[in-house]
Amino acid sequence: MKPWSLRLASFVVVVSAALPASATPNFPSAIQRDLQLNAPPQCTLCHNNPAGGTGTVTQPFGMKMRSRGLVPEDEGSLQTALTALQAEGSDVDNDGVPDIQELRLGTDPNGAGEETPSYGCGSSISPVSPRRALPDASVILSGTLMAIGAIFLRRRRNARTERAENEG
Length: 168
Ligand SMILES: [Ca+2]
Hints:
The protein is mostly helical. The chain has two domains: 1-22 and 136-168; 23-128, no CATH class. It is built from six helices and no strands. The protein has helices spanning 4-18, 27-35, 60-67, 75-88, 99-105, 137-167. The two termini are 28 Å apart. 24% of the residues are buried. The model is unreliable at 15-21 and 124-132 (pLDDT under 50). Bound molecules: calcium ion.
């Protein structure tokens, strides 16, 4: 039987793996750099929520980028997909203004609103929803599990030390 600390470590690894992945954090700044935008686009350019995660790329622009080879965590695939959309003049909201041009103009290529807010992943410019500025639940849960694990390991070590002192 495995020591309980190994079982705890396994549990933390399994729970962490099961948590939803966040949006690829470098993509907004990479898009800003590649298209020479004044500010990085929000994660909701591609994801259906500001925190992102697996299965949340449901925005038309994000789906189009994926159809042109975009994969998470791969800036090369991001550049390839942006180049493809620009070359084909993609216009996912069919308003006559190509997606890449909309990004440069600061408008939302998905047609959802007047403009793309100019802040990165997880940020919020709306003072009415301050909870968006909080870390996402997976970060809080992972941190809590690690803290609990550290407390248990310390208690076990202290108990061993105490036992050794009593015996010796
Ligand atoms: Ca458009």
